[in-house]
């Protein structure tokens, strides 16, 4: 039984997450030849203030991007 864990910043809708999990499931069915019922997918979400890239939290990055658009 393949198990996939996706770690990502919070902020996507339930519909977006469900669509992503369906697509991942289908990729495993196609490429590994397993039944969809055998695939387990878990999403671990981090609050934007708890995730950092390039030395800035995702909150700081979003604020900088918004300021740059002005």
UniProtKB/TrEMBL annotation:
Signal peptide: none annotated. PANTHER family: 2-HYDROXYMUCONATE TAUTOMERASE (PTHR35530:SF1), TAUTOMERASE-RELATED (PTHR35530). Residues 2-59 form the 4-oxalocrotonate tautomerase-like domain. GO terms for molecular function: isomerase activity. This is Tautomerase. InterPro entries: 4-OT-like_dom (IPR004370), Tautomerase/MIF_sf (IPR014347). Keywords: Isomerase. Belongs to the 4-oxalocrotonate tautomerase family.
């Amino acid at each position: 039984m393949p198990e996939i864990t996706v770690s990502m910043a919070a902020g996507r809708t339930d519909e977006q997450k469900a669509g992503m999990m369906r697509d991942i499931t289908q990729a495993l069915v196609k490429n590994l030849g397993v039944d969809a019922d055998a695939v387990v997918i878990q999403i671990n979400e981090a609050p934007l203030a708890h995730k950092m890239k390039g030395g800035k939290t995702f909150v700081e990055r979003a604020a900088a991007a918004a300021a740059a658009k002005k």
